[in-house]
Amino acid sequence: MREPDNRNEFEIFLWGEVILVALLGAALALFLTKPSLRNEYHLPELRLMLMTLYAVGGGLVALLTAGRFSAEGRRFDLLLYGGFFTTSIAWAVFSVGPAVAGQPQHRAETWAGLVGILAGWILVACAPFVRGRVENRRTALVDLSICVGLFLWLVWGIFHVLGLVLPDLQPANGRHVPNLLVGAQALLALANLVAVVGFGNRFRAHAEDLDRFLALGSTLMLCGSIQLVFSPLAATGSVSEGDFLRLLAYGVLLVGVWRAIRSTEFRRAVAEERARVAREIHDGLAQYLFAVTTQVSLLEAGADQTETLGRLKEAALAAQQEARFAVLALSSASGGAPFDAALRRYVDFLTADGALEVEIDLDTGVHLAPDEQIEVFRIVQEGLSNTRRHAGARKAWLTIARRGVDRLVWLYDDGTGFDSPTDGAGQGLRNMQSRAAAIGGVFSLRSVPGRGTALEVVLRP
Description:
Blueprint: H1 2-33, E1 41-42, H2 44-72, H3 75-100, H4 107-126, H5 137-162, H6 179-206, H7 209-230, E2 238-239, H8 241-300, H9 305-333, H10 339-350, E3 357-362, H11 370-391, E4 395-403, E5 406-413, H12 426-438, E6 442-448, E7 452-459
Parallel strand pairs: 3-4
Antiparallel strand pairs: 1-2, 4-5, 5-7, 6-7
Helix pairs in contact: 1-6, 1-7, 2-3, 2-8, 3-4, 3-5, 4-5, 4-6, 6-7, 7-8, 8-9, 9-10, 10-11, 11-12
C-alpha cells in the first residue's frame, strides 16, 4: 500500500529538484554570460562571518547525525557524521582560526582547508551507497573522529612542507588563478553531484524525509561549487554569490537532520511501547486464554457444567477486556487515535461493569508531545488498573491541567490506601516512576490508609 505513496512523493521531489536546478542554472548562466555580474567583493569581515557559519553549520549537522547514529547505529549516519565533521574542522582550523588570530592565511592552511572540505564531501557523497549497521557505536564515533583529526593534520603537514612549489592563491596581477584551484573546485562539484544523485535515489527507494533534505542541500552546494569553478576566488578575503548558496545549503541540511532526529525519537518510542504492550499481552491476555482452555478441558472431562461455565464466561470476558486495552494502548502509541479520545475510551472500557467510576478533567490547553502522550497514557492506565484491583475504590478522579508553568497529571481515588509503596502493586508503581522519568517528569505518590491514594506527575514546562 505504501509503494504508490512513495512513487508520488518521489515525483513531487523530482519536480522540485528540476525547478530548483532550472532556477539556479539560469542564474549561473546569467553570471557566465554577463561578466559584469561576476563580481567578487573584498570583504574580509563578511568572509570571516560566512566561514564561521560554515564551521558552525557543519558542526551542528555532524552533532545531530552523531546522535542519530548513536540511536540506530547505521553506517549511513556514521559517514554523514564523518563528512560534516571533517568539513567543519577544516573550516574552523584552517580558515576561521588564522583569521581570528589576525594571521594571514598561508598557502598550506588554504590548501589544507580546501582538501579537508573536499574529503568531507566525498564521505557525504558515499553515505547514500552504504548499508548495514555498526555494532560498537561509541567506539566507531571516537575512532572516526581521531582519523579525521590525523588526516587533516597530515594534509596540513604535507602542504606545509611542499608549500614553496605550490601555485600561489594570490598572484601579483590579481587575475590569474591556478589550474590546481579550479581542479579542486571541480572535484568538489563532482562530489556534490554524486551526493545529489545518491540521496535522490535513496529517497526514491526508502522515502525517508532526511534524504529529501540532503538532496536539496547538496543541490544548493553543487550550484555554489559550479559558480566557484567558473569564477574562483583569487583572494582568501573575498566573497561571491557561491558563498551564499553554501550558507543556504547548510540551513537546509540543518532543518532536514533535525526533522529526522525528531522522527527517529518518535519511532523509537513507538517501537518500545509496542514491545511493552506485546509483553503485557503475553503476560495478561495469554493467562486468561489459558484459563479459558483449562475450563474447556474440565468440561470435556465431565466437570459440573454450571460452575465451570460460569468460570469460563468470566475468563472469556476478562480476556476480551485485556485485548481491548492492548489495542487501545497501541492505537494511542502509534498516533492512530487522539490522546484524549483514546484515554476516554480506555476509561469507558475500565468502568463498563460499574465497579469503578472515573471522573475525567482534561484541559484542552495542555499540549503533550508524542512521547509524552505514550508515557502519560500508560501511567494513567497503570494507576487506574491498580485502583481497580487493589484499592477497593468506588470512584477516582483524573486531571490533566496546568499549575503555573508546569503541566500536571493527577490521579486520586477514595480507596483503602496503604502504608508502604511496596504494598499491593509495587512493581506497577516502579513502572510509573520510570515512565515519568523517561519524559523528564517528576513522579510522586501519597497514600493514607482509609483515605485513598493520590499520584501526581509534574511534566516539564
